[in-house]
C-alpha cells in the first residue's frame, strides 16, 4: 500500500513538471502495485485471514527525479526482500498457491528495480538534463 501511494505521487509530480513519459511509466507501476494489493487481499480473505491495510511504511517522496528513482529503488528492494521471505514461509507451510502468487509479484518487482536501475544508469551516462529532455512529450 505504501508503494502505491509513493509511486502515484511521484507520477503526479512528473506530470506536473511535464515529464509525461516518465510519469506514465511510474503511474503504470502504481497500478501494478494496486493489482498486487488486490490479489493479496483476496488471497488473505480466501484463507480466512483479516487483511491489515492501515500499517503503512513511511513514504519517501523525492523532490527531484534522481531522488524519486533512489526512493523507488529502495522501496523495490524492500518489496523484494519481503516477497522472498513470504515465498520461503509459504513453501515451508506447503501453501503452493500463495507461493505461486507471491512469485508472480516478485517477478514484477524485479522488473521494476531493473527499469529503475536502467534510468539511474542513463542519468549517470548522459546527464540529468539530457535524461529529463527525453521524458517530455506532448499528449
UniProtKB/TrEMBL annotation:
GO terms for molecular function: ferric iron binding; ferroxidase activity; heme binding. Keywords: Heme, Iron, Iron storage, Metal-binding. Pfam families: Ferritin. One of its GO terms (biological process) is iron ion transport. InterPro entries: Bacterioferritin (IPR002024), Ferritin-like (IPR012347), Ferritin-like_diiron (IPR009040), Ferritin-like_SF (IPR009078), Ferritin_DPS_dom (IPR008331). One of its GO terms (cellular component) is cytosol. Residues 1-127 form the Ferritin-like diiron domain. The keyword Iron applies. This is Bacterioferritin. It comes from Methanosarcina horonobensis HB-1 = JCM 15518.
